[in-house]
User: Fold these one by one.
Assistant:
Number 1:
Amino acid sequence: MRLIQWASLGLISLVAADSNLTLESRNILPSTFKPPQHFQNVNLVRNINLEKNYVRETVNVVIENVGKEAQSEYFLPFEPGTIARIGGLEARDKKDPEKGGFVAEVAVTDEQSSTQFYKITLPTPLQPKGQLTLSISYWTLASLNPLPAQIGQTDKQYVLYTFSAYAPSAYLTQKQKTKLKLPTTDVPDAVTLPKSLNTEGKEDPQKQGTSFTYGPYSEIEAGALQEVSVRYEFTKPLTHSKLLERDVEVSHWGGNVAFEERHWLTNRAASLKNHFSRVAYQQSAYYNPPMAALKELRFPLAIGSEDPYFIDDIGNVSTSRFRTNMREANLELKPRYPVFGGWNYSFRVGWNGDLSGYVRRLKTGSDGFVLKVPFLDGPKQVEGIEYERVVTRVILPEGAINVHFETTIPLISNTTSLHRTFMDTLGRTTLELTAINVVDELRDRELVVMYDYPFSARFRKPLTIFGGILLVFVVSWVVGNLDVSIGSKVKAA
Amino acid sequence: MSATPLHDLWEASASQPFQPTFSKDSQFQIGFTLLFIGLLLTGLFGLNNTLKNVPLYGVPASLAFG
């Protein structure tokens, strides 16, 4: 069993190294695919938020159907290699946000080197000459790179972000603008564009405090790119989780729900120029300057959580605090060592919760239950955390059937299987959900699971043990009454 | 029918939180008592190992262990 686990973990890391793309559910398009030019972007405003260690882009665009027939498929292009790092892509009607998100799915061409697309399907086709304001938002993971790539232990860190001043689009864009929101005013380098490109004749970027603006630009052809980059101070860890495995184990007899998270973290920040100096590190601990090393992780848990643990490959890590009262349950962890750029740290944390806060009995039928848990907890950091891959397992009691789930996190796979552990007869019903390119802003998203847990299943385990022990009694009686004496048989009196 | 049927189900059953058969505080006492009864009956059965005593001691002991 352990071997299989190792093998599968190896496989996962191999696949992850290759790129997340290999596991995407995808619509394959021919390599010569060009999105039909049915649409035109009338006005496009792109906001790029660089305040966290992942990049959040929000594109608000007024689209117009310039074709002759009603259209419902809008394509969003991505550079080769970036689509595997895009997460949480959501598209909605800006004028009607209540209506919920549109269907957005990956539609890739079979050739890895060409431009890849996301396909956004409008719920109602847009009539010719009709206009619609789309609001598209997504995260790009691992897109900030430290420059210089090596710094001293207490130096400031600068990161480089490269992007296109023209918003990537598969359609002609009449008017557009890109706004950057930086975390600081310390920006040593920003690529400037000549005045001739700008519609208003200004030199780009136009700076205003911590926000930079490229544009407006008019009449930009489909697929046109203008590469620019900014380099700015970001003396914070670029915490990147290669894999997060999360278990939620439900016990009806115990009235308990047990959470466990296994993290494989790495820091993408600039690596150390010299050896790590413990003296310098201890000295800096007194005035606590900003640092590119990951020093602390904070888990705000659900109120009422108890019995937390924090262990790594060596064993229990004693540098943790658990503050719990009526209003909060905060788990504050310090890794065994400060995680500098290029260093890794893997650990597991776990805690228990009262089942009555997570499971409710359904009104219809006595055996139906509904469970609501966060899809992921994970640390909540000021600078953010990005997850390449999150595997959440919900381990239901033995004999749970008719499992249905619902979550707003885009998933790439879901399977229902059996998880066998101590004293199990058949194995526990397990729902395994996988998501890729998740960030810590999604930690409030819920996972709702509905299942039936019949009365008979509840007593299966006690009855099995009863049967087994009764057998022991019977056997002991049989064995105890065997006549194994040597010599002639003595008639019982 | 809204877009989140399961979430609605969750809200609809707000008045019925899960009530465990035994609360977490009493788990140890119940477990200990049952095991103790089980061990005691096993001991008695061991002292007087007869067919009659299989149902007399064995069945309740097994139930207690289970």
Number 2:
Amino acid sequence: MTATFKIWRGDAKEGGFRDYATEVAEGMVVLDAVIQIQAAQARDLACRWNCKAGKCGSCSAEVNGIPKLMCMTRLSELPLEKPVTVEPMKTFPVIKDLVTDVSWNFRVKKKIKPFKPRLPDAPDGTWRMQQEDIDRVQEFRKCIECFLCQDVCHVLRDHQMHEKFIGPRFLIHVAALEMHPLDTEDRIEELRSTQGIGYCNITKCCTKVCPESIQITDNGIIPLKERVVDEFYDPLGWFWKGLKKLLNR
Amino acid sequence: MPDYETFEHDVLIIGAGGAGLRAAIEASAAGVRVGLVCKSLLGKAHTVMAEGGIAAALANVDERDNWKVHFADTMRGGQYVNQWRMAELHAKEAPDRVRELEAWGAVFDRTKDGRILQRHFGGHKYPRLAHVGDRTGLEMIRTLQDHGVHQGIDVHMEHTVLSLLKDGSRVVGAFGYERERGRFKIFGAKAVVLATGGIGRAYKITSNSWEYTGDGHALAYEAGAELIDMEFVQFHPTGMVWPPSVMGILVTEGVRGEGGILLNKDGKRFMFEAIPENYRAHTADDEEEGWRYCQGHKDARRPPELLTRDHVSRCIVREIKEGRGSPHGGVYLDISWIKQKMPNAAEHIKRKLPSMYHQFKQLADIDITEQPMEVGPTTHYIMGGVRVDPDTQMTRLPGLFAAGECAAGINGANRLGGNSLSDLLVFGKRAGEYAAKFARENQHGQINTNDIDSAAREALASFERSNGENPYAIQKDLQETMQNLVGIVRTETEMREALEKIGNFKTRAKKAAVTGNREYNPGWHTALDLKNLLTISEAITRAALDRKESRGAQFREDYPDKEERFSKVNTIMSKAADDSMQVRLEPLPEMPDDLKQIIEENR
């Protein structure tokens, strides 16, 4: 059968939807249709992809208005009697067609304090960790950096607060570091200040679009918010810290 | 001469998968300025798709393991045409490279006593693969990436290198373009490391992404370095076969490591039927022993599903050819059967193989905890590649290094699962270390602007043809040819036919036409990639023709047995003065007695 895809074509200056009809077969995903259109009808149609199996997070786009990995979106899930719209992520500037400039994400990550382990536990320089103590960190480390959570987050998408808020992806990155059993670094002060965790008002849109089903809000952002509160807004905490300082003298 | 943007680095690394990143970290730690060029965004290279684990004789799960057993396993798996020194270094250094990842933040699955857990994999005597569920590659690349970006490495994302620049015989940089705007760039460097990965895109059914067009292989060859072992292309036994759009996507060997079994359409576990002589003593007598092995019983031997990939692939092809395949032209891989053996099997499968569960559920409507998967061989890896010095990873061209899949030697005729990620780490580090040393000992070379101008003209030629060929169509025809004529089962007649066709494709590639402009234009990128794809396709075919025997991944229907005269030689290819591809056989370096003894002790 033939289906129609309305694909956004253009660059930073101008653009619009163009219709492409293409033959679809059982089992196809949106990315298959886009690649097929590229090979036969629009050789210069720009899109990113790599693994085609939901592991690399390259082919992020908005399919019928919803942020998705094109490689994991089956055509059988979509109403094909209507055209399928495929457009670039809206939170990031367009480079061309479905390709956006996601370089901001790489700059943000570079500013986050890196992993700093405690001294090794064993004389051979290795550590001991129990599986149940790392389950949560492993959940966060499933992140494939597709940036769909950044795309859907209204703080970034609607309010364009890229300078004040690092977005769900990097809150999860900080959470993975902060909850790493070996890590000794403290990132709570910048979470509150430069990383803007307070701007997140827990609408959980990020969790909904995460292709890895990471519980971004419940397991990552909320516990981090609690740590910020404990550190900066808890009178008992202030008292305790003051006491510790005194004792340390 | 047009104005090209120019960058200068002490060490330029081409490719940002495991090997490239590890090389960049090492070179940068040595105090030189490092530039890293990659075709995709950082963190998207093929390493991210590696699933099963990193092979290293940590002996955390079975204390009998050590580097000697790992070395012997690697040599046996490679049918003894491996570069012994690389196999030795690899086995000795892999444990440190894994522990180092933990120090950089990697979070591996744990043993009960809190150490790095290791799993069984094909051809490894003991449970040896450090892993994180079935997403080990993601853990590895993210760890290296996050560690690397804090070291001050200059990363040039979405850039493609078109040619290496030379000053006499020495390599002094690279010329390429930025994919985003299509602008040309010159990268001057005192040393260059190739870490470009594989060649899977030369085949129709492959686990590799669009990136794997043999760039490092072809760049090195064109510059005058040698390629070895190009006939040895690994067809991974288990790729998805249905639906058609996912054909070739990898199904990790970890499924079999966790107890998965292969069945034909009659429900017969066919892998017990033909066990190779050199593995007989290592293989289970019956199904029960195989299962006990997967459960960690130390007196049990491996099930035949965990024999080497070359062998398993051939058995699957045999079943399909003889009419015992599954409905979509594969065989069945079943992990759901373990529910007969353990309570909570479904939960166990989801925990140990989460991305496989996800992949089949979403792409094929199959619940692997309930139903068998349909699988068949897929082009996965090339053992062959750029010939390097085993210790320093330098090619025969001064200043040019290679590491990872695009370099060759460690794997011989067949690679064991898990040895790739460890190879990337061990030899990535070595390449970075010695490239930095070379850079400290040498000045920048002279860059010849005439070479650059002609490379730029050649790269733009496809824009000037209005009615030429569609580059995607040429690529597709080449992929069909390699799949059908130089695939798992090879014959002289078919490969001669392939060579003729490759010649035609070269002519067609010169007529490829591109529409649109230079900004992020995949049609243009595809046209440019054709050159490398054609070079390596020719190299694979010529090497496969000259090795008139069957060994490891190379199976010749017209020479179905191993031949003594090929047992101690490598095929070496280089570019002759008249631009033709020369193939010669060269004896392997003699293995020292202590290593020979290790192999004997582990027979």
Number 3:
Amino acid sequence: MNAFEYAAPRTLDEALAVLGEHGDEARVIAGGTALVTMMRQRLVRPSYLVSLREIAGLDRIEAANGGLRLGALATHREVETSPRVRERLPVLAETFRRVASVRIRHMATVGGALAHADPNQDPPVTLIALGARVEIRGASGRRELPLEEFFRDYYESALEPGEVVTGVVVPSLPAASGAAYVKFLPRTADDYATVAVAATVSLEPDGERCRTARIALGSVGVTPIRARAAEALLAGQRVGADLLRAAGESVRGAVDPLSDHRGSAAYKREMAAVMAGRALTQAWDAARASVRGTR
Amino acid sequence: MNRKIRLTVNGTARAVEIPTYRTLLDCLRNDLGLTGSKEGCGVGVCGACTVLLDGKMISSCIALAVSADGHEITTIEGLAGDERLHPVQQAFIDAGGFQCGICTPGQVVSAKALLDAIPNPSDAEIREWMLGNLCRCTGYYKIIESIRAAAQPSRA
């Protein structure tokens, strides 16, 4: 690893000031699982590290506008095991549970994972399907944007130099909704997905037709991808097995996978269609079950 | 760019001056002489470097020592008492939970963390918790048996 200066300020304002002073030379560190690994591999050589670990309150998981707000410094394990997350958005707890190993989940943070902008990660997929928004702070103030607009390219986010992710706000699902996360990984359980899909389905008040669906995919492009064509096929429709399968098939047009040791691009495209169909079917079934449960 | 940091390691206060880029694993092994924790993969996957930071297991090979300033570390050296092994260590011996031994410190520390969090885990919970600790001798069944034995109250 290269030599660097290290600061662990106690307040966010102090951290932003240090970042502003050092510009591109500085990197933010939280859990360190991504950054230290990249530094050990000499992929990045920052001359200044600003740790957010000593800033109190950045790790809160709290209720917000009927949904949830995950503080940037909350660990994956904290989200996975949070009673509040498990009760309100079990699909999100389950998604965080699928990341790497318990040991890594003790270290890796919500905000660090987003800022890393690795398209193979699990949480962004489900967060996008849930309509999450990311909170960003910089010297000039606070801004918020839909998470799907945050990811710009391979390991590239919308963060400007000097900005940090402070949290992510996740709306709750409407009544009569279902959600699912399907991680296809034919290798070991702690691996990145070969293809990952998250889907949410909300029903019309009649409980028979789909009002809206959202579907997002990971590991099939340079960023997580939202499949709007598939969503449009389902909106307003009386949904059956054929339509769910057709919606799954339609994601072929949205994905642009890279060939790697987890599979060829063609194979991943095939699996994206299959797994999207499965995720939508699970979300649809869960939505229907939630209607039956209340009648 | 050296830093003086203070750690509580296995219950003892230690102060050490290190370069900022020192990993926690290298600090423990080279600066503090605690060579029980091993470096396997060096990228947080294999679990040989597992230690507890404030009671939670982490990969010390991808943790910066400066980030642990002011915190408590437990390593494999801190598990046994003066006279007797930790129940997890004894169970690994009794049930044959190791072969070549390189992964063993990490396996034992992870298993201790598991039993601290879930005193009587199911086999599924043992497997999920331990999946980040690789054994290239592939002695996984004996490792699971060891943890199961350590969890039995009669042995504790």
Number 4:
Amino acid sequence: MTTPLPKRIIKETERLQSEPVPGISAVPHDDNARYFDVNVEGPGGSCYEGGVFSLELFLPDDYPMCPPRIRFLTRIYHPNIDRLGRICLDVLKNNWSPALQIRTILLSIQALLGAPNPEDPLNEAVAKQWKENQAEAIKTAREWTEKFAQKK
Amino acid sequence: MPIATRKRKADSTTASADATSEPQRKLTKVSKALQKDSISQEQAALPATPQTLTSDKGMDSDDDFNSVASSMDLGEEMSSSVDFGAGESDVDIDDDYQDDGAFDATAKDLAPKRKHFEVEFKVYSPQDIQSQQDTQIAEVANLLEQPSEATAILLRHTRWNKERLIEQYMDNQEQMLDKAGLGQEINQNPPRVVVKNGFTCDICCEDGPGLETFAMNCNHRFCTDCYRQYLTQKIKDEGEAARIKCPGDGCRKIIDAKSLDLLVPNELTDRYHQLLMRTYVDDKESLKWCPAPNCVYAVECGVKKRDLNKIVPTVHCECKQSFCFGCTLPDHQPCPCVLVKRWIKKCEDDSETANWISANTKECPKCNSTIEKNGGCNHMTCRKCKNEFCWMCMGLWSEHGTSWYNCNRFEERSGTDARDAQAKSRQSLERYLHYYNRYANHEQSARLDKDIFHKTERKMTLLQSTSGMSWIEVQFMEAASQALQQCRQTLKWTYAFAYYLARNNQTEIFEDNQKDLEMAVENLSEMFEKPTDQLAGLKVEMMDKTTYCMRRRVILLDDTAKNLKEETWKFNVELR
């Protein structure tokens, strides 16, 4: 590592370990403290309930002035998440504030799972299905959760 | 304050025109009469006009130069009320009528009428724009009883729509302030940096004693380092200014200039104010930046977007750039913006390809797919529709019977039909290429003329030393060169315009005008290639041709603009 890790990242990492958020875990890599392995449980009552979704999270150099980069690794059927796992979420883009943290962002992502927004879609096909036949869409999401998002 | 207006310029030149107008007009009339006979005579007659100018030479040479300009303006003047709508196709006759009336036209000279192709506009310097903003802020601040910083934020929020702001503010003050990102108590708390004990910055997690902190009225407090870094990034990397929000999560409070000045270094506040200025101009429909590189001026013009099908609002910046206010592309009169856009797109997609297609391919007689024959026999099978035909006669292969591989069946019906259809589709391509080639030619020539213009300066210096003329006296070269550039620019766009024009009686007049201008331009262009030692002797002729070119241009533009305004042109595409 060329530059020492900013105090902010050290503190955040410590707090993630000492006071973990229920249903969410984020563990930094040993060789790169800016790279996190993340697991998020599907929120209760949603079609992702029972699933554990893994994500990757990276803190760029200008974090926290810039938002962290986050991507789903587990396949998920969701109108705001595309095939590559990219997430359409305002706080990850123009509504980012440097006062936000890894934990708050992960909570937002968990909330997004609980409340899909087909009006602002990233994955057009899924969003279309969501609007036209919600029951069918939810069924597919359940199936995918069972198929791809089980704890190993 | 306006720096320059088109109207003013016209005023001053008209005034100087009056001094020389009478004898000149008589002579113009004479030369006009001669013009009608034939083109060669017209050229012979043309030098008559500037002879008055040269005879004035004993006077101040400055006047001499002015009168060149004024005679050009005079030409514009006279054509201003020429009526093309009446249906006469002979433009010169109209001009003569105009000449007859010219002696008692003083009233019109005093209040010059705007030409159909001209629009009213003003050019503003950055200082003008700043003071414009300041005046508006002061005005509204007074009315709303808010400090000017807050007023500025409010105005930017409503995109400088004063009426809307005042209305909404009076309606619901609290809601308006909140929406614009202002707290209510902006009056009481001047922004300041404070040291707070036991404070931890939420951004960097620093908590050392003596940490300087800052917060706006929303009380989202961070250390000044983080605040500064945040603002720097917004301004420098994201180019934001008017709508930078508090760094607190979900807070919509907008940072004001005063707080900003307190937090960031000077070079950044400069950039910030620059960006604010930029958003001001961008927010106003009636203001646009001059698109020339490094130009700092903005132009104000009242032409609305919805009127762009009826008018081509060319404006002229202080920096000499002429551009269209509608689309900020370089001056493209007489062609309206939509057609320009279409044409450019078409040329990008088509021109070279079309040339190649025309030379190397044929279309399948059945499905019209374009086919290049890259070898083999004349028995073609279209890959798309499986139609089998003969490459030579384009007729059905099945009709060829036993004469395979040796086409001698030109009189066969299916072949003739196929060739007819083909000819039709080729024709549209040819038509496009006709206009494109002329368009491209003028573009190219304008570039070459520009090279010549650079050489002109040298020629002008040379001319001074060889002929003993003064600097002012050799200005005619520059005037000619500029006229050439301008006319070619116009000509170029007449071809794009013509491509979309559907034929009617008006187009005949248009094409006549186009032809006249083209001829005038080529004549003048030719003179530029003469060796320098001859140029002094050609001064009169050159000045005359320059004037003539400019006049033809004005006539053409006025006619097209008038018809555009009155919607008498018919286009073969929809103006959308």
